[in-house]
Write a structure and sequence with these properties.
membrane (chains A, B), homodimer, STAS_dom_sf (chains A, B), alpha/beta
């Protein structure tokens, strides 16, 4: 268990650093946890509970030294999408659904970890993740506008959210709006302008950093105070957090109803994968800065344990959060023990501070969320992919549009499927080049890009892709077309330096090509076949039927086969830049 | 349109050959069409109707000269699975469902053809198709046992079929069984032993071939005669085909009910793809024998038109059949006109012969099917894939088991998904080799396979796979591990001769690697990057940030980077056979 690695060498220095980091993270987490619980459609205290046991369990089972586990924006939104329609807001059934979702998600993550299936998360391509996070940020920010305006609109996707906002626009509570708008403006200023202002005023950089982190707490304190003094919840109808139970997280049990499991399992899988991908990206980024390593399959177990912990302590699905982890790291956390101290801080908050937040306006929490998620919105990925690769651009733009229009679950599923389909499409029509010899060398290059010598009785085709079921027939078709266009042909050489695999379907295509060429009196040869591919070809009987030979190098093949007919012609194509093969 | 290609040069020779082929195929198709309609759970005449308009439409729009289009075994089974539960056998609703299924399948095929999406069919790997056909053959043969035994069992998969057979075993009609068993035995003998016997008796080979093809017709004629003479359908309860309407195919309309479309669309897609794959394989095999070419995207349109034709003339989904196409080809068919003459033959049969088949026992048709499909059952693919590639073995064995246990639709869907997942899994953990120079040459080979020189300050890693989202993180992880194990390292070279693509995710990983190595004081270089990949890298700003260089050849890279530190060490690994890189 990872805990033994760092536990053995734990000393007073590490303790001091971890404690400082824990205090800073605790201050930041209190408003954030309340806010994300609200975003998930759950009572505010659920957010605090979801930050205590999970953080301790991750410290024991996880491999990242700085990752801070708890509720995060995107997973909270996905939780709302998964359980929002199952029960009334605030009902006991909804809480059971939330802990069951955390339980299923945790078990799924642990199973992936045990069976070392962490690689599955790689099927979310970077652009798809970036598009999904951006679209989710927009959805989240839009969904919070209702709290800023004090209206009761709803919706699970952008068209629904906007229509509902428009329909309820007559009900705006202007006191709530004043609180929400000023809190949002203040928090944006804290994020961008407070630290420079403090530094300019002569405050030491470290303290300035801590004070800037405390901005949300200040907004919370001030709006609580104002709402309490003027009793705005009763006199002006400002919605507040209200009664929050005081005490330690409760012991809860997930449901074992097969019906509920059936309803939630798909969402649990998506939440697990999105949570894992987000968490691993953060953990890897932070580990790299200190030349540490994380172990993805062990991370799955750490996050899985955290979610199972959330399930039994009144929480909801959690993962490693970007903002809190970076704060933890910047504050100097050295070991996962910092997370455990944070948990203690949050326990104290749950026991002592909950009466104070009765008058906390929901608009303040919404402001916290909006400011946090708008930093996730980044459309530059559209421009980057447009320039670099149209296929990636299609994947990312489809993910963004589908997430906005149909919600998070459709969006991310479509993103994965599109990434895979585009990859398969590309590898199903591989780049192929007819090659000839660069005069005076042993190099063979594309006749379309270089001035090369070719022999009309020999066709050398280089395939720039592994041969497998998706492109086997394409190879057959292309080769037959080329052979049909060259009546003088006597030898075909398939040049394989880029062929990393030949599967059974491709082997059958090669056998078909061999038979068909044999019937035409043309030999079929291979050159530059790689070791692992050659090992595999030797297992079947293809090589014993091959009408030609397997040559170690293309040069040897050309020497031997051209030998019968030494008239070489220089390809008529234009000489081009020599940088491409 | 393909019809103009061969239509212009049509002459008397071709006419003669086509007419002979048409007569032979018509004789063969009459019992086969009736039998497959029964397999699909439809009235016997549907099979004849499905062979007339489709065959003519394919002759106009298709590109194969010898393909014979009509009902086939696997598609008939899939039709039964798709519509069997929607309505009572023999009801008008069932016929509407059948023509709607043909219509949807036809429209889907035409759309695939118009958008040039024929490549999608390539995602069915050869072993998966072979496994699917074998399992379908077993399912079909088992499903026909009830007709041989004269019982009313049912089921859509092997466990259901066997349980139902067992439960109804007490009801066996022994007269039916006598007819069915002797017809089966006779047809097996016709298939294996008749032609050699005729040849031995001095019959000319061509006539012997035709007589052997007429075996099923003989079985049909004899059993009709026996059943008629003894009136077995009334005296012994032998089930017969019964009343079949006499006349031309009726004009039918597919349903445009959205509900029915929703129910059938998934099945229509599967039927289209399976039908297309089967048809294209047959057409390619036959075209190759005469050095002709087929155009897969035009084939989609030809098959689509055939299915739409079936939809409007009382048929059900059709495709190019293996047995009838081979017979057509062997009988000397030169052009698709042979198909049109076959259609005329079948129209005559529909008008004149239907009264004769009133007394045809269903057991005879079941015998025809069993003998035909058992020739499709071939487990050798299991042995071949076991020897050649475990991944293909897993795909094929899973397809067989799932098809048998859960039916055709689950089986083929699972087969496609498993093929794709296995491919993605393999390419997500690519083969990588640390390489060094073979002494005295400019070649660089795997240090684990060859005796090579390496420089401890330079790490050259060759990745044998395109870099894309599924393996980008794996590359990062592997490279960081290697760098962490080599404290003296100053340069990393990524050797890219097998990298056919670098997508956006992989580019971001390369950027991350570059940044991280830079922080460690190690330069990051690329060598032997291909033209198309280099073109793409130039579009972004990666190359301007690259801490090292891009070298045209690995040799140049080694000369320049080793130059700073010329102490070379010979790798300690054992020298091995030189055939693998």
């Amino acid at each position: 268990m990872p805990v033994f690695d760092w536990g053995r060498s734990y000393n007073r220095d590490a303790l001091g650093n971890d404690l400082v980091a824990a205090v800073i993270v605790t201050i930041m987490l209190i408003p954030q946890s309340l806010a994300y619980a609200l975003l998930a459609g759950l009572p505010a205290e659920t957010g605090i509970y979801a930050s205590i046991a999970p953080i301790v369990l991750y410290a024991i089972f996880g491999t990242s030294r700085a990752l801070a586990v708890g509720p995060v924006a995107v997973v909270s939104l996905m939780t709302a999408a998964a359980i929002g329609n199952l029960a009334e807001p605030g009902s006991a059934e909804l809480l059971v659904a939330a802990v069951t979702l955390a339980f299923l998600s945790g078990v799924f993550l642990i199973l992936l970890g045990i069976f070392r299936l962490g690689f599955l998360a790689n099927f979310l391509s970077h652009p798809v993740i970036a598009g999904f996070i951006t679209a989710s940020g927009i959805l989240i920010a839009t969904s919070q506008l209702r709290h800023i305006l004090g209206i009761s609109s709803g919706g699970a996707n952008l068209p629904e959210l906007l229509r509902s906002l428009y329909e309820h626009l007559g009900e705006v509570n202007w006191t709530t709006f004043a609180i929400g708008a000023s809190a949002t403006a203040f928090l944006f200023w804290v994020r961008k302008g407070l630290k420079p202002a403090l530094l300019a005023a002569g405050v030491k950089p470290k303290l300035a950093g801590v004070l800037a982190k405390a901005g949300p707490v200040a907004a919370v304190a001030v709006t609580i105070f104002v709402t309490w003094v003027f009793n705005l919840s009763e006199t002006a109808g400002v919605r507040v957090v209200g009664d929050v139970p005081q005490g330690l997280p409760p012991l809860t049990m997930p449901s074992f109803s097969p019906d509920l499991w059936g309803t939630l399992i798909g969402s649990a899988v998506l939440i697990s994968i999105i949570g894992f991908v987000e968490s691993v990206s953060v953990a890897q980024t932070l580990a790299a800065r200190k030349r540490q390593r994380i172990v993805p399959d062990q991370e799955l177990i750490g996050l899985g344990a955290a979610n199972v912990g959330a399930a039994f302590t009144g929480g909801y699905p959690v993962t490693g959060g970007f903002a809190r982890s970076v704060v933890n790291f910047d504050a100097g956390a050295e070991t996962p023990a910092a997370g455990a101290y944070t948990a203690v801080g949050l326990m104290l908050a749950a026991m002592l501070l909950t009466p104070l937040i009765y008058h906390l306006p929901q608009a303040t929490l919404a402001a916290t969320i909006i400011v946090a998620v708008l930093s996730l919105v980044d459309f530059s990925i559209l421009k980057k992919t447009w320039v670099y690769s149209r296929a990636d651009f299609i994947a990312v733009s489809t993910t963004i549009v589908l997430t906005l229009v149909f919600g998070v679950e459709v969006g991310v599923t479509a993103g994965v499927l599109i990434s895979i389909l585009i990859h398969l499409y590309k590898s199903s029509r591989p780049h192929m080049a007819v090659v000839g010899r660069v005069p005076g060398t042993e190099h063979f290059r594309n006749v379309k890009r270089h001035k090369v010598e070719i022999d009309e009785t020999v066709l050398t085709l280089r395939v720039d892709e592994s041969l497998y079921f998706a492109n086997a027939r394409y190879l057959e078709d292309s080769l037959y077309d080329m052979v049909a266009a060259r009546p003088q042909l006597r030898h075909v050489i398939l040049m394989c330096p880029a062929v990393n695999e030949i599967d059974m379907s491709a082997l059958e295509s090669l056998e078909a090509i061999n038979e068909r060429l044999k019937a035409l009196g043309v030999t079929f040869n291979l050159s530059e076949v790689k070791g692992p591919v050659m090992d595999r070809l030797r297992r079947g009987d293809f090589l014993s039927h091959l009408s030609g030979k397997v040559f170690l190098s293309q040069h040897q093949a050309a020497v031997e086969l051209n030998g019968e007919n030494p008239q070489l012609k220089v390809s008529s194509s234009q000489p081009q830049e020599r940088t491409s093969p």
